[in-house]
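Predict the 3D structure for this chain.
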Amino acid sequence: MPVSKAATRVGAGMANSASRCAFCSLKRWASSLERQTSTIVAPSPSARPTIRLRQPSGSPACLGCPLNNLAQEMNPLDAGFRDRTTRVFHTWREAYRSALLRAQHHGIVSAALEPDDAAHMLVAQIEGTLSLARSTQDPQTLTAGARALRSYLAAIRAPGH
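Done. Predicted structure below.
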């Protein structure tokens, strides 16, 4: 079934707006990560309870990650949209990589850790948890994902941290 040019323009406009909003939100989040030395990658025991993957307050459903949801639908159809969402995910991974490198420099994270791989794993773990929560509609999926994330962060700490 052919898609009208008007419908294509409307869909592309919505996708472009959504990707720009997501990029702006991620840039704000990533800039706060840039100022961190240790609390994000190796939280202290008192900070551990704050690592949570939440659904909106009062929401009846686990909605997943809006950017990933949109990327899954639009990326195969629109190369420009794919480029923009790829940049957002790259920015997120780069923020983690930089934080991990700083933490290694300060002796907080194991020197044996490969920051590029760990950054990729962190983004994939968070996005995977949100995707599973959306698919299962089970909030316990978010709880399990946050618990796994805390365990991973504890495992990458340097001895004595």
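The longest helix spans residues 5-34.
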